[in-house]
Amino acid sequence: HVQLVESGGGSVQPGGSLRLSCASSGSIYDTMCMGWVRQAPGKEREGVAAISPGSGRRYYGDSVKGRFTISKGNAKKTLYLQMNSLKPEDTAMYYCAAKVCALREYGYWGQGTQVTVS
Q1: 65-84: b or e for each residue (b if 16 or more CB lie within 10 Å)?
Q2: Edge-to-edge strand list for the sheet holding 4-7
């Protein structure tokens, strides 16, 4: 059973920081590509960051490069997103997602956690 549970969202002032967590189950953590995707009201879904299993190769969207860091905590099989220098335009629902790396689209999603910067 695939399960992704996010936590860590909230409200913060511009320039502040938040860390999102995503607890995963099963073999997701060890075998799947995982990432964070956000969606603001009225806007399209946007890939924020992603990380591959094994090598831990990272990808970042242009709008968050240099400010956000994706990482994995092996002991707890948890995915993290450290968000620094937050801007109002970072306000969105943030989703943890996972997929078979060979596939283009994410197939597994968490319930989302709201991040508000104002």
Answers
A1: eeebebebeeeebbbbbebe
A2: 4-7, 18-24, 78-83, 68-73
pLDDT score of 26 more than 80: no
Residue length of the chain: 118
Q: What is the pLDDT of residues 39-78, one digit of tens each?
A: 999 999 999 999 999 778 999 999 999 999 999 987 788 9
Please answer whether residues 4 and 97 qualify as being in contact, where contact means their C-beta atoms are separated by less than 8 angstroms: yes
Looking at residue 75, what is its pLDDT? 76
Integer CA distances (angstroms), 50 to 12, 28, 38, 41, 107, in order:
23, 14, 12, 22, 14
Residue 61's contacts (CB-CB under 8 Å, 6 or more residues apart) are: 46, 47, 48, 49
- CA 86 vs. chain centroid, Å, equals 15
Q: Is there a contact between 98 and 34 (Cβ–Cβ < 8 Å)?
A: yes
Q: Are 71 and 2 in contact (CB under 8 A)?
A: no
